[in-house]
Design a protein that fits this description.
By secondary structure, the chain is α+β, with helices and mostly antiparallel strands. It contains 2 helices and 9 strands, in the order H-E-E-E-E-E-E-H-E-E-E. The protein has an 8-stranded antiparallel beta barrel.
Amino acid sequence: MKTLVLILLGVCFFSTVTRQNKTTDIEPYNLEGVWELKHQFLYEDNQISDTILNQNGYRQVKMYSKEKVMWTRFDPKDNNEWFGYGTYSIKDGVLEERLEYASGPMMKIVDTIQVFRFELMMDSNSYQQINIDKNGQYTLAENYSRIE
């Protein structure tokens, strides 16, 4: 009887340790959902130098679902359409977006930049994607809030 109890305890312990090890490999970021741009930060020497608020009807929304991303922007001062669709991945705090389809003006940008790479900082209801230049300096951050 003692042997059976020890075997059962051993199996339970092994199962618990295995389950805990699997959960530590999961990326802590989850962007699935709909997000709206609230404002942007400009940087100088990796310090925030200015904040750009959305004004006069400007709106930008991103939607993330199962490794797919779609975004759209409306700016009443700009006659161009701005939208894009593609895939995204997150690894080690870096968000990468690869657009497959986009509006005309955006496709011109996609032709020169195949992968959009950002440092990602987030909590449950907001996230920040930060552009980093070739010298490793922050240039611009877009700050989003989750739409419930």
